[in-house]
Amino acid sequence: MSMDEKTGGGTTERVRQLSLHLNKLGHKVTILTTNYNLSKRPAFLPKNIEFLPLPCIIPRYYLPFPFLWKVSQVVKNADIIHLVNHWTIINVIAFIFITIYKKPYVVSPLGSLPIYGRSKLIKKFYNSLIGKRIINRANACVVTTNNEYPSFQSLGVNKSKLNHIPNGIDEKDYLFKGDDFIKEKLGLGNNPFVLFIGRLNPIKGPDLLLNAFCKIKNKLPNLDLVFIGPDEGMLKSLNEFSVQNSLNDRVHFLGFLSRDDKSRLLHASSFLSIPSRQEAMSIVVLESGIAEKPVLITDQCGFDEVEGVGGGFVVSATIDALAEGIKKMMSKKNIMEKMGKNLNTFVKKRYLWETIANDYNMLFERVVSAK
What is the pLDDT of residue 161? Predict the structure, then answer.
């Protein structure tokens, strides 16, 4: 529904990487999307990837202007269609032409199937009208984490259609390392800091992390907290909470950063925290692993293996659990470097995009051959 790096988050990153790597494997790739928050073609897409943005006429719902002949043509010419996310009108329009032309297709909801957050009644209506049909008629479904299986099963999807393909990471995107320059550039002091990367949205839990940090502020007086990511309605209340609790000099909201600056900040951090209330295998965990930084995540991130490989800690998605987790992480200063290396080894072994793209490639070829 969007290829804007600033607001698209992990979904946009996954589509970007998958498109680039399938293109490297020799496939012709076309991205059908909206022009939400875009004034021109994204610079990260090479010219041999076809980019087809439809005008977004209602940003709140990513509602595209229905250039039906364009969608018709791109679906008709495709060997296989990959529908990403779930609550999108652009998927509905594509699905109509998929049905007309009897094209094989794969769906990757990326953790979006549960009805959560705003517009619950609209989402229930969407599922009953068309959403459930899109998922069930797919030739194959991609499951990012084991946490997603119940969501598919609740919609009646046959287990034989489910294929586990996790998120991936490209280590070349995180070569820039932390230094004094990045702290000076972003107005940070010399204190060590906990890093949050993500949208300032309730589902990502930035309020949980800020409240947890407030609980331990006196026990760890030289520790700062840094948030990077676009605002989705929470920045004002988070800022006000920081001021009210005398944290405004220790809590930093930096907004959206370039990929290079994000890499620098990751390398400069003590550890990364992902306090999500719901997540489908956070890409940010992989980013932290590539930067050799340990993580503190919730058990809603779909990545509990982190603790098993000694790359960080997994806690419940509550203020108290996160507060204890921060204290636990900072008490392990002598082994944090080792934890970061453990996570790095784990990520490189299983989650590089070269491997993930091949998994998708084999799935797509299998579906096309069967059709």
Answer: 95
| 323 and 296 housed in the same domain | yes
Tell me how far apart the alpha carbons of residues 135 and 227 are, in angstroms, rounded to a whole number. 35
> Residue 331: which domain range?
172-350
Same domain, 212 and 142: no
CB-CB contact of 51 with 19 (8 Å): no
Contact indicator for 275, 322 with CB cutoff of 8 Å: yes
Distances (CA, A) of 302 to 115, 157, 211, 356: 17, 20, 23, 17
Q: Is residue 70 classed as helix, strand or coil in its secondary structure? A: helix
Pairing assessment for the beta strands 312-315 and 295-298 based on DSSP bridges: parallel
* Residues in Cβ contact with 340 at an 8 Å cutoff, skipping those fewer than 6 apart: 271, 288, 289, 291, 292, 293, 294, 311
Residues 162 and 255 in one domain: no
Closest CA to 253 of 203, 318, 207: 207
> Is the same domain home to 22 and 155?
yes
Predicted local confidence at residue 173, as pLDDT = 86
Query: Domain check: are 320 and 222 in the same one?
Result: yes
| Interatomic CA distance for residues 157 and 135, integer angstroms | 7
Asked if residue 251 lies in contact with residue 224, where contact means CB atoms within 8 angstroms, the answer is: yes
CATH label of the domain that carries residue 257: 3.40.50.2000
Element (H, E) at 253: strand 251-253
Q: Do residues 356 and 168 make contact, with C-beta atoms less than 8 angstroms apart?
A: yes
What are the structure tokens assigned to 274, written together?
A: 């992902």
Question: Residue 231's beta-bridge partner residues?
Answer: 200
Q: How many domains does the chain have?
A: 2
CA distances from 304 to 64, 187, 297, 311 (A): 37, 34, 8, 10
Residue whose token pair is 């839990």: 205
Asked whether residue 302 falls in the same domain as residue 331, the answer is yes
pLDDT tens, 31-81? Answer: 999 999 998 999 889 899 999 999 999 988 888 998 999 999 999 999 999
- What pLDDT shows up at residue 185? 82
Cβ neighbors of 37 (< 8 A, separation 6 or more) are 2, 4, 6, 7, 59
